[in-house]
Structure formats: structure tokens, C-alpha cells
Amino acid sequence: MPNDSADAPRRITVQRRGPWLVDGPVEVELEDGTTVSSDRFRVALCTCRRSRRYPWCDTSHRRSAPPAARRPATDTEPPSEARPAPDAGPA
């Protein structure tokens, strides 16, 4: 599917934490030289390499981060050394 000079340029939308969205149809040449193609109007190309359908994105990037990495950091709880020791009661 080589592009002729008369073809409009392909638009690729780059997202910070997600796939590259490419206006289709597209042909993708993989590292081993094989070619895969899609005739969809837009395809999502995997950038994290976790997809089971690589080079197509299957949203694995959403599940791959540990829960703590997805949660925003908060400063509501003091560090453990700043917490008061539990009361041991009368001696």
C-alpha cells in the first residue's frame, strides 16, 4: 500500500500514555520484515509492547501499571516516624 504523491498524508495522533492513533487504511512493516495491514478508518498502534495483538493496541497499557502508580499521590498521612507511638498504658 505505498503512498502515491497524490495521496493525502496520514495523520498520526500521539498520546502521552497510550497508543498512536493512525488514520487508515494502514500497512505496518514489523521488525522481522512481515507486513500487517488494516483497512479500518483509524487504528491504534501499540507503543508499550504489552499488547497480545501487537502491533495493534488491545489496551494492555491500562492494566499494566501497578495500582499505586495509577493512584495520585497525597500528603494526608504523615511518615511512619512522625506518627505518635501507641499508648502503652500505665506502667
UniProtKB/TrEMBL annotation:
* Pfam families, sorted: zf-CDGSH (PF09360)
Annotated region (Disordered), positions in chain: 57-91
All residue ranges annotated as the Iron-binding zinc finger CDGSH type domain in the record:
23-67
Classification via InterPro entries: FeS-contain_CDGSH-typ, MitoNEET_CISD
Question: Which cellular component appears as one GO term in the record?
Answer: cytoplasm
GO MF, one term, reads:
2 iron, 2 sulfur cluster binding
Q: Which UniProt keywords apply?
A: 2Fe-2S, Iron, Iron-sulfur, Metal-binding
The yes or no answer to whether the keyword Metal-binding is present is: yes
Question: What superkingdom heads the lineage?
Answer: Bacteria
- Name of this chain's protein: Iron-binding zinc finger CDGSH type domain-containing protein
Q: Identify the species of origin.
A: Streptomyces ruber
